[in-house]
Amino acid sequence: MKEEKKYSLPQSERLRGKRRIDYLFANAKGVLSYPYRALFVENGTDTSAIMVSIPKRKFKHAVDRNLLRRRTREAYRLNKLQLSQQLNNKGLDIALLYIGDKKEEFSLLQKKMCDLFNKIAVKICE
Q1: Across residues 14-34, what is the average pLDDT?
Q2: Which CATH number belongs to the domain containing residue 85 in this structure?
Q3: Which residue of 67, 78, 81, 98 lies most exposed, with the fewest beta carbons within 10 A?
């Protein structure tokens, strides 16, 4: 039963609130692993919170944006334990920005998410 909870993405792990989001964009460090750009800042807790942004300018149809948003959240959900282990359970506020021009397959997105987490861990440990 506990194994299932580790891989969930509850509401508490979603970045909400104008103040937190404004603070994130004002003070964030960034890393890039195409087609993602991640902005992150430590939040002082032991859990990370994310937000996903897919640009309407590049993906005119809501169906495409929703598909990419679902794939991104799923890639994060499956690999978030890797990030928390690398950071020794430090909490981060993370904005995942999709900067690609086309829809990518889930397997590529998952691989890029792992690369992104490795880069975040390196940048935090500096």
Answers
A1: 96
A2: 3.30.230.10
A3: 81
